[in-house]
Write a structure and sequence with these properties.
alpha/beta; 19 helices; six-stranded parallel β-sheet; binds adenosine-5'-diphosphate; 477 residues; Rossmann fold
Length: 477
């Protein structure tokens, strides 16, 4: 058994703000069949502490950057869990990164440096084979291994779930990080005159991974690397891409308790019940045209401004749109105005609603994902599993997981969706027109739905790839 310590700032089902939580929560079970025993380390936020039934104190830290802490050991879903109980850092109401008003906690650098330091010390002292750090919040873990455990450091993996979030802090925190002066350098933690947590982790880790092969290539370019493209390029083949999986216990139309009608690839006609229910829920007219859906953060990254621009085209071409999302006020206003212009044709729900997102995948005909960049993306994977055909920008994980319905792919029965180049109004409008044309050929459309439903994006394949990477690094391949 290979022993891996995974450190992340969130994991389902305990604490989630985004895709990172899904991955950190799913990995331990995905790795178990591959001879990897993964222990997860999480911060002791109140809901995490409450979930520990009868915790044992596994370790005590007298001085985690000036704070006391203990590691509580428990189990979660049959997997080993360690929680850093440091009340001064993590025992507060609000979100994992900020208060109830969305303001970042001013000591986030200290909170996540302490988490990282605990992870590094633990990995070495307890003889873990690998330390796996996720995102900037854990970025200092490989850094502490490098500077505080030189010569006996545990091999480390740094996974980047989104290059847009880097954990950049002022120069003044450097002296309080417990690092030697040598760490203040361009190949250490220094980044544009401050301290970059993600940058530091990427510089120190043995291997960098991100969540799709295409995104792993894209982040070598300034457009996607967000300032770290030079560092990525310099790490050469030590930057890998492994796509995320989806959890079939949560996302399977054959046994999804949220749906009006459950179905499989062999009973696609049953989707009609879900479509009618969805139309009613969004106040949309019923007709024989396609129902597009969007489930998304409403941000520039997700191309939602372009969606606002093509809303009229979508309706004039015979489509309808049901949208669920939350985010930028300007985009909410633009989408609300589109819905007001097209009553019965465009319906929107602003907010976060997990159950509704399931009903939308099961009742929609096609899901639009016009992201400007997308490290992996999950909603297109849910779309594939649910026969809700993904219409996606050709970028990152969207490019890697959807097979465009070009003539060759259609002839081979391989097509699973529609891809388009460049996130612009004309390109998205064209993709919508192509989608509607395909939808009007029922045999072809069904073949695309079925091919998508057959594609396996559960964790089986990606779990094996992570296990192989750990073995390589531990010298146990
Ligand atoms: P990102 O992590 O960049 O937001 P992903 O596609 O990787 O994008 O993951 C988004 C996840 O959040 C998916 O599981 C999606 O279904 C869910 N989601 C996004 N917005 C909403 C919403 N408003 N209501 C319910 N689920 C949402």
């Amino acid at each position: 058994m290979l022993r891996v310590l995974s450190v992340a700032s969130e994991a389902v089902p305990l604490v989630k703000t985004g895709g990172l939580a899904d991955v950190a929560g799913a990995l331990p079970a995905a790795l178990a069949p591959h001879g990897v025993a993964m222990t997860s380390l999480l911060p002791g936020y109140p809901p995490v502490l409450r979930a520990l039934a009868k915790p044992l104190v596994a370790w005590k830290f007298d001085d985690l950057l000036g704070h006391k802490g203990r590691l509580l050991a428990g189990q979660l879903g049959g997997q080993d869990l360690l929680v850093l109980d440091a009340p001064a850092l993590f025992d507060r109401e609000g979100g994992p990164y900020g208060d109830a008003n969305g303001r970042d906690w001013p000591d986030n650098w200290l909170r996540f440096a302490a988490l990282s330091l605990a992870a590094a010390d633990l990995a070495v002292r307890q003889g873990f084979d690998i330390l796996h750090a996720h995102d900037w919040q854990a970025g200092m873990a490989p850094t502490y291994l490098r500077y505080r455990h030189a010569g006996q450091a545990t091999p480390s993996v740094m996974t980047v779930h989104n290059m847009a979030f880097q954990g950049h802090f002022g120069r003044e925190i450097f002296d309080r990080l417990g690092l030697p002066a040598a760490a203040w350098s361009i190949d250490g933690v220094e980044y544009h005159g401050g301290v970059g947590f993600l940058k530091a982790g990427m510089a120190a880790a043995n291997v960098i991974t991100t969540v799709s092969p295409s995104y792993a290539r894209e982040i070598r370019l300034p457009e996607f690397g967000m300032g770290l493209e030079g560092l990525v390029a310099s790490r050469g083949t030590q930057v890998r891409g492994i796509v995320n999986g989806i959890d079939p216990a949560e996302w399977n139309p054959a046994n999804d308790g949220h749906l009006a009608a459950r179905y499989t690839a062999a009973s696609l006609a049953r989707r009609r019940g879900n479509k009618r229910a969805l139309e009613a829920e969004f106040g949309l007219e019923s007709d024989d045209g396609p129902l597009f859906i969007v489930v998304s953060r409403l941000t520039w990254q997700k191309g939602m401004d372009v969606l606002v621009d093509v809303a009229d085209h979508l309706v004039h071409s015979g489509g309808r749109l049901a949208l669920l999302g939350s985010g930028d006020a300007g985009l909410v206003a633009g989408l609300s105005a589109a819905a007001a212009r097209h009553p019965g044709r465009i319906g929107i729900r602003i907010g976060y609603d997990e159950a509704l997102s399931h009903r939308m995948q099961a009742g929609g005909d096609a899901i639009l994902v016009p992201s400007r960049f997308e490290p992996c993306g999950l909603t297109q994977l849910y779309g594939l599993a649910y026969g809700c055909v993904p219409v996606v920008a050709r970028t990152g994980g969207l490019a890697d997981t959807v097979i465009d319905a070009n003539i060759a792919a259609l002839a081979a029965g391989a097509a699973t969706g529609i891809q388009f180049n460049s996130v612009s109004a004309p390109a998205l409008a064209d993709a919508i027109s192509r989608t509607i044309a395909l939808y009007r050929q029922p045999a072809l459309w069904k073949a695309i739905q079925r091919a998508g439903m057959k594609a396996d994006f559960t964790w089986a394949g990606s779990g094996a790839l992570y296990a192989q990477l750990y073995r390589e690094l531990a010298g146990k391949s």
